[in-house]
Automatic annotation (TrEMBL):
PROSITE patterns: MFS, SUGAR_TRANSPORT_1
Name under which the protein is recorded: Putative MFS family arabinose efflux permease
Membrane topology: Multi-pass membrane protein
Start and end residues of each Major facilitator superfamily (MFS) profile domain: 44-442
Amino acid sequence: MNATPRARPTAHPDPNAAPAPSPAAYGPRDHPIVLGLRQNLPQFVLLVAVNALVGGMLGQERTVVPLLGKEVFGLSGYTAGLAFILVFGLAKAATNYLAGTWMDRFGRKPVLVAGWVIALPVPLLLIWAPSWGWVIAANVLLGVSQGMTWSTTVVMKIDLVGPARRGLAMGFNEAAGYAAVAVTALATGYIAQAHGLRPEPFFLGIAYAALGLGLSTLAVRETREHARLEATSHVARPDGRHDHLHGDLTNRQVFIQTSFREPALSAASQAGLVNNLNDGLAWGIFPIIFASAGLSVAKIGILAAVYPAVWGLGQLVTGGLSDRVGRKWMIASGMLLQAFALAVIAAVDSFAVWAAAAALLGAGTAMVYPTLLAAIGDVAHPAWRARAVGAYRLWRDAGFAAGALLAGVVADALGVRAAVWVVAGLTALSGLVVAVRMYETLHRPEAVVSGGDADG
């Protein structure tokens, strides 16, 4: 007896999605491929949790590793001591770029899983390191892993939500990652105060890596088809600004547009580089400044946590806010606020004022970080968006390496506070570049504006 074939369920209308998904727009388990935060909420929440674990892997180093270099391995030169951040930044930057191409070629999920596999040995190397060279090797692996895992969670969330909630998606992604950085930095500070710099603080990293690999392998679903669906309904800007960027571009064209030629993309790339130059400085130099003032490891952990905590939680507000007020001026003003906060840190010598300045630095970074990613998503066509994100993140995370190198050289020559002053000046200049060169990238297609937002 022949049963009547059961019709596939029809997806709920969504202004971000194509009007009528074709039968091909279904996943391997008959999950309808639709765009929107509400429609993809379980996977979105899962990816937020996965990125929190990614951030935790970074957070395990924020308080403890700079102190390991000074107290355990006896490093005296700032440039040598910051080498672990330099190699981390170079490895992560290069992997970011490659990850975009790999995601387009192989899919998002395989890149995510591979990144977690590479992360597994990192905490073990930090625990067992008999020399500073082992710490350097661990940070090469950490940079490769972060480039694969963090880049993938960014692109997968952009894939899922579509254009109407891009800033909000990036706010949640970056908030989860950097809140985890803060919590882990604080926790490892207290653990190190009670039990020493090794091995106990790095037990958290072992747990994060195992859980991240398990969730990514067993529960995360592929999102590449969501990007392909968005490409079929991509709406051009009425001003024609992006007409020359429609369709697929070669890898070389994507890199040139993102890095140099396209005004908004290139302005975002330089701002991202300077922003992470700040973070490299904060990671490698701030604990040393605080320790030289006689603060305990626990208090250093508090200060190391305040900056990424405000940064992380603030993005829950700033990401969605940029969907309403626009990207350009949030980025420019956020860079200027960071410059002011760095100047305060360089000028004072007080725990309370340092804490307030770290909070301001986090607030400025929260204004910038998800908004830059959203701006890249605004301009880049879905067909080459993953590669544009990879190119942007190459420049952004090269800032870690630039910050470590610049801060080390200036600190060795003129002192650690001089290094902070130099970076404060560069940050202010970057904000002015955004104000002059970037145009407003936020554009809501007329159908979205008139039809409301299905994500509510």
